[in-house]
Amino acid sequence: MLKLVFAYLRERRLTSLLNVLLLGISAAMLVLLPQFARQAEERFMRGAQGVDLVVGAKGSPLQLVLSSVYQIDKPTGNIPFGALADLRRNSMVASAIPLALGDSFGGFRIVGTEHSYFDLQKAELAQGRTFARPFEVVVGAEMARQTGAGLGQKFFGSHGLGEQEGQTHDHIPFEVVGILAPSGSVADRLILTSVESVWDVHGIAHADHEESRPQDEHAHETARTAGPGLEPEITAILIRYRNAAAALRLPAMINRQTNIQAASPAVESTRLLTLFDAAIAALGLFGWLLAATGGLAIFAALYNAVRSREGDLALLRVMGASRSFVFSTILVEGLIIAALGAVVGLLFAHMLLWGAIGIYPSVSEAGFAASRFYFEELMVAAGVIIIGAVASALPALRVYRTSLVPILDAN
User: Fold this and answer.
1) What are the CA-CA distances from residue 73 to residues 95, 122, 364 (Å)?
2) Are both 229 and 304 inside the same structural domain?
3) Could you tell me which residues are beta bridge partners of residue 237?
4) Which has the closest alpha carbon to 236: 49, 81, 43, 72?
């Protein structure tokens, strides 16, 4: 039977190829939807683990969360460094981690923070050590891979984030002293250093912390005197609650009684994902309509092929082939086309995602991966095959019910 089916497919190779591509395109669209939806949800949920609240400058709460937790947007501004001490003294706060943003290198953000940020991101060193003095940095695995950064390498940061780099701070070089192992977190794409290093680069005077001692006295002195009148500031503070009651009291207290802002990563992430639900549903409907169109194309192709092959099929019956055999021949032909379309669609979707990650930095920064597979993809493949089976069953049923006498008389 299979030899006969493949002979029929070769006879109409162009039509069969077009049907496979039509089903493949619809399957690829249906696969990309759960890929983006699931990976985005996982990315947001994973990125917010361990962060109950983000405190920063007044503005959009979503922008504050995206820029501070996920590192994919511009900050809302800066807040006084004293806010960190105030929050750490609050009995409702278990931990508070400062972030100082504003510079980047090669499209990767330089983040001033503390060693506790490594624990928050579950990031471990693959090489070297953590930063201990000003201008020492630890780079993420992805940053090291794309730029070729190694231990001991020095570079100059530029003002601005990501691709919007501006003036280069060429008076103070950073030195790589550590490289993180891949963790699947936002830290993979970051350049981590101390908050004091960020202040020094911008000429902001401050009192050295115990762990911050200048490795280059001339550069350190230059940084201290470059911008008189500037006060120490940070971009945001990542907070973890001490108890459940803090979730109700602390955000309200900050938003109402201070000139800074508090935003919940869980709330803002859920709000953002909800905005995409309607669009994903609409695109999903369009994808299934496209798949149904592919099914109609298979039906039309097989129906016309059956009519043109009625004499051959009747001859098979005369030679002893049963109705079931002839029925199965047409059905298997449609199923093979549908199965090939499903496979092409799965491969095409992952190739498109892989290409998008390489071409568009924002897709890569969002943490998408082309190697992940989800159960929904099997459902899409099964749906496409079912559409092909239904489309081929109708012309096959016509053959099953057709009488041999008029066909043989006509031939």
Assistant:
1) 24, 22, 14
2) no
3) 55, 98
4) 81
Joined together, the tokens standing for residue 70 give 């996920």
Q: Between vectors from CA 154 to CA 187 and to CA 146, what angle results, nearest 5°? A: 45
Number of structural domains (the chain) is: 2
Residue 374 CA to residue 324 CA, distance in Å, equals 37
Q: Pick from 39, 37, 33, 27: which is nearest to 348 by CA?
A: 27
- Is residue 31 included in any domain, yes or no? yes
What letters, b where the CB count within 10 A reaches 16 and e where it falls short, cover 269-280?
beeeeeeeeeee
Nearest to 99 by CA among 234, 262, 254, 261: 234
> Taking each helix axis from N to C terminus, what angle separates 375-401 and 13-47, rounded to the nearest 10 degrees?
150
pLDDT tens-digit map of 374-405: 888 888 888 888 887 887 777 777 666 665 44
- E strand or H helix at 127, and its extent? strand 125-128
The predicted model scores a pTM of 0.67
How does pLDDT run across 138-154, given as a tens digit for each residue? 999 989 988 888 899 99
Q: What 8-state DSSP symbol labels residue 230? A: P
User: Which whole number is the average pLDDT over 264-286?
Assistant: 78
Helices and strands (DSSP H and E) totals, the chain: 15, 13
Phi, psi values for residue 32, rounded to 5°: -65, -30
Is there a domain that residue 229 lies in? yes
209 pLDDT higher than 50: no
Query: 233, 263, 293: which is the final residue of a domain?
Result: 263
In single-letter form, the type of residue at position 394 comes to L
